[in-house]
Amino acid sequence: MGFFADLHIHSRFSRATSRGLTLRTLAEGAARKGISVLGTGDFTHPAWFAELEAGLAGAEPGLFRLEDGPPGVRFMLTAEISTIYKQGDRVRKVHHLVTAPGMDAARKISSSLAKVGNILSDGRPILGITSRNLLEIVLQAGEGTMLVPAHIWTPWFSALGSKSGFDSIAECYGDLAGHVFAVETGLSSDPAMNWMVKSLDGYRLISNSDAHSADKLGREATVLSCGLDYFAIERAFRTGEGLEGTVEFFPEEGKYHLDGHRGCGVVLTPEETAERGGICPVCGRKVTVGVLSRVEELADRHDGTMPESGRPFSSLIPLAEIVAELMGVGSATKRVRQACDSLIASLGSELHLLREADVEDIRAAAGDTLALAVGRMRAGEVHREAGFDGEYGRIRIFRDSEGDRLSSGELLGTPLGRPKKGGARAKGKTGQPMRFDG
Ligand SMILES: [Zn+2]
Ligand SMILES: [Zn+2]
């Protein structure tokens, strides 16, 4: 039985993140999701690092736990660094996930980075150094430090992205490229897409949520069966030993899956983009070329096989999105939150529920409709509206005709929720208590 790691996340000191992100909300969020090893994010930010030093205690080698935090959650020191520089006459913007096995190594990385740029204003600092030179700084900070190219296909900010990336990881890190052994696939691609590019065969594919709020933790994660130990995880990423696979978004849900212009309301498949010469039919400018196009551009394996280094993966939909679809309300609503809390309380963590809980147990706890929904998701029987140019896609389980029955309450039956204060049951939209029954 393995465990889940989600190493790329952010603190409230990064731009555009939830103000509520503290070590405690992160640890509690990880416990809800079923994540055993959570990245701290943002360790280069002095104020966040001070909180890490004050709040975390050493646990297993290279891992930390929060004092009085949920017992099963460990932290790993991680940060995302953005590098912007010119190479080969093009501006390169590449994001990197950096990890450290201890406070000293993290401090060393931060003090080296402070000499080359500003690490004070953003938890994810933007530095004018090359990817290669960032890697050198990370390697010099001591044994066990790691650099993993982040969300490698994102058009604007990644090692292989269509706008500012390279055609191979090796090209990005130059003479030090041999020290890179794992890459993060990002939300808009899944391992099967990455298997089409032979130059990635030598890298282990890992997944993380890149969460900017606690409720997004674990939307992607890596499954490990190695020891609960920083150095064992590093070895798993390097050799594949103890790396079991990943849990993924359906890649269409990612916000850069297809091509297009968000402002123009134009979404194009790779074939449509090619037919139009890459030009937006509304504004006449170049479209943002998404991940699928870019993967197909670099693809040199078309038979659908998994390379030897490959690992299985499961494509999941966040529980809040499934419940929201069943209730016919937004996924960020209080009702959805309460329903998810009660499901997790009776069935275990979210990742367990989505990935491996017995469908009969789900049926017993929450009714036929949720059991049917989870079964369809696991079988990949979902409807996909792909994301593009920064707009998230939408994955739905039920057809519109079925959706009408859901929102009319026909498929909503009896209570999911615990009795509210004063003894009243939680009410569904139709006045019926919430249970996802047909
Ligand atoms: Zn990033
Ligand atoms: Zn346009």
Can you walk through the features of this model?
The strands form five sheets. Strands 1, 2, 5, 6, 7, 8, 11, 12 and 15 form a nine-stranded mixed sheet that branches. Strands 3-4 form a two-stranded antiparallel sheet. A two-stranded parallel sheet has the order 9-10. 31% of the residues lie in helices and 18% in strands. It folds into two domains: 3-253, TIM Barrel, CATH 3.20.20.140; 318-381 and 399-423, no CATH class. It is globular. By secondary structure, the chain is α/β, with parallel strands linked by helices. The model is unreliable at 410-435 (pLDDT under 50). It has helices at residues 23-33, 46-55, 103-116, 131-140, 169-173, 191-194, 230-239, 270-275, 291-298, 319-327, 334-347, 350-355, 359-366, 368-378, 400-407, and strands spanning 3-6, 35-39, 56-58, 64-66, 74-87, 90-100, 126-127, 146-149, 182-184, 204-206, 221-224, 243-249, 259-261, 266-268, 313-316, 383-385, 394-396. It has 15 helices and 17 strands.
